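Hi V.,

Quick status before I head out on leave. The structure for the redesign project is tokenized and pasted below; the design run finished overnight.
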């Protein structure tokens, strides 16, 4: 399956976990999805662990897509807001200085771009085109009558999505913070029971927070529906409170589910020093010696 398609399908699955806010709908839906997947895997001769692993991988792809889109939207909207505020508050001298700086940087970009066989005239044209694009973008942003003050609140909402889905992704990759000193003190024969006990505590905490978030999301949803979608939304942003608080339910539900798997399969051990960058550095050191 195409990577983007997997990400989109995984994102739909991730968002569908929010149906747990309405258990009479969400629980049957999840059970039906799991049962259908299990039957499909059995028909292909695969076991339940293999099927659950594939579902977990698909959810992870969806989480990555959601987090990536959220980070891009946060960056762009906050940048646009900063540009609008700067353009609106700048005096003539400051605006002229910025224009000159953009002009010089655009020409430098045109001349330093690594393209073989490009004549001086074409480099100038590229630089002037870049400068025109920058000024046109700033002009369009400047014309916005009310600015982009909503970008900050949108960023706060997206930060919640990024943070809580990031917690679930960390559970998937084994990157949650652990107290290594305690682990070293546990005798070798008791490490697995210690891991199971820690998993039970974590799952219990995630379950409690998920149950609390169900009530919170449902209360916000009810306020939004009963007011005919006029209340229960942010003042400067047409996003209802229930959508902003949904990542609490989704994040803790997925995190708890993954730690539930830790109880049966064991936690993933991740050595941060042996990460991609560290491995490259080690290989370069060996090659140098």
């Amino acid at each position: 399956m195409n990577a983007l398609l997997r990400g989109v399908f995984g994102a739909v699955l991730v968002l569908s976990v929010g149906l747990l806010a309405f258990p009479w709908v969400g629980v049957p839906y999840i059970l039906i999805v799991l049962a259908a997947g299990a039957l499909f895997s059995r028909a292909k001769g695969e076991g339940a662990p293999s099927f659950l692993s594939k579902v977990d991988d698909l959810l992870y792809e969806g989480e990555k897509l959601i987090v990536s889109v959220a980070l891009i939207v946060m960056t762009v909207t906050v940048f646009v807001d900063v540009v609008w505020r700067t353009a609106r508050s700048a005096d003539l001298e400051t605006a002229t200085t910025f224009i000159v700086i953009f002009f010089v940087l655009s020409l430098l970009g045109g001349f330093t771009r690594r393209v073989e066989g490009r004549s001086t005239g074409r480099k100038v044209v590229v630089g002037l085109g870049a400068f025109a694009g920058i000024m046109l973008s700033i002009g369009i942003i400047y014309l916005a009558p009310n600015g982009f003050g909503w970008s900050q609140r949108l960023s706060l909402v997206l930060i919640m999505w990024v943070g809580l889905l990031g917690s679930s992704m960390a559970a998937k990759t084994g990157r949650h913070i652990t107290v290594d000193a305690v682990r070293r003190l546990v005798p070798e024969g008791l490490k697995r029971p210690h891991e199971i006990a820690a998993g039970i505590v974590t799952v219990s905490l995630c379950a409690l927070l998920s149950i609390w978030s169900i009530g919170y999301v449902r209360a916000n949803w009810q306020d939004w529906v009963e007011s005919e979608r006029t209340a229960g939304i942010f003042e400067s942003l047409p996003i209802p409170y229930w959508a902003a608080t949904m990542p609490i339910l989704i994040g803790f539900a997925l995190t708890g589910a993954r730690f539930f798997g830790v109880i049966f399969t064991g936690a993933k051990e991740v050595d941060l020093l042996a990460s991609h960058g560290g491995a490259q550095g080690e290989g370069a050191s060996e090659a140098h010696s």
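Above is the designed sequence. The chain has ten helices and no strands.

G. will cover questions while I'm gone.

Best,
W.
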